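Q: Sequence in, structure out?
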Amino acid sequence: MSSQEAAKRAAAYFAVEHYVKPNCRLGMGTGSTAAFVLQRVTQLWNEGKLPGLKVVPTSLGTEWAARQAGLPVTTLDDPTIQGELDLTLDGADVIAPDLSLIKGGGGALLTEKIIARASHSLIIVADETKLQPSLGTGFPLPLEVLPQAQALVLRLLRELGAQAEIRQGGGKAGPVITDSGHILIDVTFSQPVNPAEMEWELDKIPGVIESGLFVGLVNEAVIGYADGSVRVLKKNGG
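A: Exactly. Output:
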């Protein structure tokens, strides 16, 4: 296991062991760090330590993995959940000092934001490389976009001073298609952005379904380090 993988595992295992309780209605994230969350949840479930657990995945990939692991998978429409979760554990692509995020590198940003908003608590699990001083200039900001709006969205993004391109599939011809049937446009800026202001600007563009900016949603971030240590960052600098 690489040092980065060890850091991800440390963060994920710490978060599961400290935050996931019996009878938890748990949002299960997507990505390489969230895979360690699923691994540890599965171990505790099989040991009988999480009775009453219900898991709501943030992507088809996570759903398939959770079902294969034998976890009790359901949806937000479950009558015992009714759109309300106790906790979501998810990863991030970039974490700013105020715990604003960029998510969506794996293409699941729409469902990830729905699940996050349904949760009383959103805990981010990540390794130290995801901590950055600002958002917008490094890792691209993903947008989920209606296919028929792509030309308009690209033009309006360029008017905002952004570089934007449609994400292309790696194992297929043509663009990446999300679980919800939309395309992804990846956006970068020449200068760091104000996350709240940019989220508002992007929401005004017709055809943009959702952005990968997560602002004001995170309660805590559990950061893992290569030596196996963990640091917990809290909202408002705690």
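Residues 141-207 form a domain with the Alpha-Beta Plaits fold (CATH 3.30.70.260).
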